[in-house]
Design goal:
This protein has 193 residues and is an alpha+beta fold. 27% of the residues lie in helices and 28% in strands. Keywords: Signal. This is Secreted protein.
Length: 193
Amino acid sequence: MSIRFTAKARRGMVALTAAAGLALGVAGCGGGGDNDDKSSPSASASKDSGSKPSAQEGQSGTPLAELKGTNGLLLQITSAARDSGGFLTLNGIVKNDGDKSVVVPPQTSGDETEVIKHGPSLGGATIVDAKGKKRYYTLRDTEGRPLTTTGLGNLEAGQTLPVFMQFPAPPTSTTEVDLQVPTFSSAPIKISG
């Protein structure tokens, strides 16, 4: 019985720590009183346009790649941009193209214990630079959380979810990589930037 109590107490402390971290993060993102005029356009832009992956969802045109998954899931990549910090960020959407509710398979998180313990994600995604003969895994933060969309779960029929994945950028001479996500087909992607 004391083991159960200890486990419940530990879960409670983890939840309390996570809530405190989120509260500090939200407080840190708030604008100060001195330069509200300068920060309000970006704050209202964030409110209106949502996160970066959501903005990609509304783009018109054909996606860079479509990866077919199990049970009618479809992963569409809408952008693959290299930035000056040495990262490659892929944005897109996961869509339930089927006629029934479906759960995003847990295999998309990969099989690394450190990534799995942070919940369902796209942490198992990799990009392959065939020219340079290298495979790149999703980046992780200092606590082992993957730099991808997390909290994946159930998608209703026709529902879409904006997603992102961040990798170390291959050399600038590499302009195309193959994206591989567990339970999805692989597809080539052209890199911009």
